[in-house]
Write a structure and sequence with these properties.
Blueprint: H1 2-21, H2 58-83, H3 89-105, H4 112-129, H5 135-154, H6 160-165, H7 168-183, H8 189-200
Helix pairs in contact: 2-3, 2-7, 4-8, 7-8
Length: about 210
């Protein structure tokens, strides 16, 4: 009798649950299926061509990163104008590069941007010796570099952002390469190797200020 009473109680609870929640085998609501994905889609495709979703290309992202760097430079420069102390700009520039490189790629290496500039200078000299860069272009760069280094020193750092900003296309080329290889899941040493090859091919150059 006790057993029958227990069965009756369980049956009653089952009826109540069916009326309350429905008696389907799977009471969980249907999940909207994901859209069909084109498995052939790769990072080399145009941003509009894969699955109808627009993702920024590595080139577009690198330009956005350089815009972010320039925004930070303007803010630091305005602060320096307020205090009258422009000697902080070289160190602030390094800090901005480190923040960006660490934020996007996890590179915690001081002076990494200057390392990239050094790679460009080395390949620029080699290309000049090989006749791929003419004497006029080499003299123009030397004139720019020497003039601005003197100005930065004589004007207590005030023109530093104008000087370092001339190398933005070179930094952006590294960022573009690093982004492509981040998408591919490769490591830090590979992008720097490809960056050097890109510089050997002359794929980035100085953005000269007016007058140079």
């Amino acid at each position: 009798m006790k057993l029958n009473l227990s069965l009756l109680t369980m049956f009653s609870l089952l009826i109540i649950c069916c009326f309350t929640f429905g008696c389907e085998k799977n009471p969980i609501p249907d999940i909207i299926p994901p859209p069909d994905i084109d498995d052939t889609c790769t990072v080399e495709h145009d941003i509009q061509s894969c699955n109808g979703i627009a993702y920024p290309s590595s080139l577009e992202t690198s330009r956005w990163i350089m815009e972010d760097i320039n925004w930070k430079r303007r803010k630091v420069y305005e602060d320096a104008q307020t205090t009258g102390d422009f000697t902080i700009l070289p160190e602030a520039s390094d800090a901005i590069f480190e923040e960006i490189l660490l934020g996007f790629f996890g590179f915690d290496e001081r002076g990494f941007a200057m390392k990239l500039i050094t790679v460009w200078e080395e390949t620029f000299r080699v290309r000049h010796q090989a006749g791929e860069v003419d004497d006029v272009a080499a003299e123009r760069y030397d004139n720019f570099r020497n003039t601005f280094l003197e100005k930065v020193e004589s004007e207590n750092g005030e023109p530093y952002f104008e000087f370092i900003g001339a190398y933005d296309d070179i930094i952006a080329e590294y960022v573009r390469i690093a982004l492509e290889y981040e998408f591919a899941g490769l490591y830090q040493n590979k992008p720097i190797e490809l960056f050097r090859k890109s510089m050997q091919q002359g794929n980035a150059n100085i953005i000269y200020p007016e007058g140079f």
